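Possible regression after last week's pipeline update?

I re-ran a chain I had predicted before the update to compare outputs. Posting the input and the new output here so someone can diff against the archived version. Not blocking, just want to make sure nothing changed silently.
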Amino acid sequence: MMKKAVTWLLIILLAWPMVGRAQKDILRTRDSVFFKTDEARRIGDQLLLFQRVTGGWPKNIDMAKPLTAEEAEAVQASKSRQDDSTIDNHATTMQMAFLARLFQQTGDERYKAAFCHGVKYLLSGQYANGGWPQFWPENRGYQVHITYNDDAMINVMRLLRDVVQHVVPYDTALVDEPLRQRCEQAFNKGIDCILRTQIVVDGEPTVWCQQHDHETLQPAKARSYELPSFVSHESATIVGFLMQLPAPDKRIVHAVNGAMKWFAAHQLEGDSPLWARFYDLQEGLPFFCDRDGQPKRRLEDISEERRNGYSWYSKSPAALFEQYEKWKEMKIKEDK
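New output (post-update):
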């Protein structure tokens, strides 16, 4: 029976495509009317089925797609897996947000219990230095690094922030005070990690790498074409997040100012604001990389597969500049 279940699970994982925009939109909806429907409950019940005993969820599976009896059996047989719970590609935090909203509208304690199990999973994965890896409790290779790639750690920090502040749907009926306090402690440690991993050049803070070594906190390599570097998109997400913090202290102000200075200095010339995805740590120049791990200065110098299979540019920092000017004005008023 177990072999049959595992075989079916492999068929499911190979047959189902990456979670597309439509499926993600379903799990990210905030429509309170929808969460009162039978369809929302059906999806919620499937999320309960996909949740691992760790408290986390795997990634890249369309969990809103109706399951056959055999598929459900295969998913159930995999609940004890320890190696695929992750915060990569919005996994776990996305499912938790859906269940929180479903509990808010239904009062079903199963959804609350699953959400709180998820919170404890997130707390269990935090390193003593405040960072989070991509996968845990079991991981391998670069999965062990502190991961900003695809906004993984920031998604966790956003959820913890909202739990701490009782932002809807994370009210007191969902999370009790002891668990909320644990989230607050983890959030504060996370902020410290963000500040400590910011790359400093000649005494000045700049931006971040997609991943940082979980022990040294230095920029670290992930996949063969993801080298230690300054990165634009994930750094923009981090800076936007830091500017949302109430009453930022001097360390946060210094970090934001340094990062914005870096963005201004490294914008590419052209008709619209644009940044390369990666800049090398030696000269601060854009580079592109193939699966051989050899950086190139020109996009056309890497294989067609990598040219078309990866986002080598980002517009994300552009949206920060207006926000930054308002943020600075607010800081000046507060300091007077």
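Follow-up from reviewer: compared with the archived run. The radius of gyration is 21 Å. Marking as no regression found.
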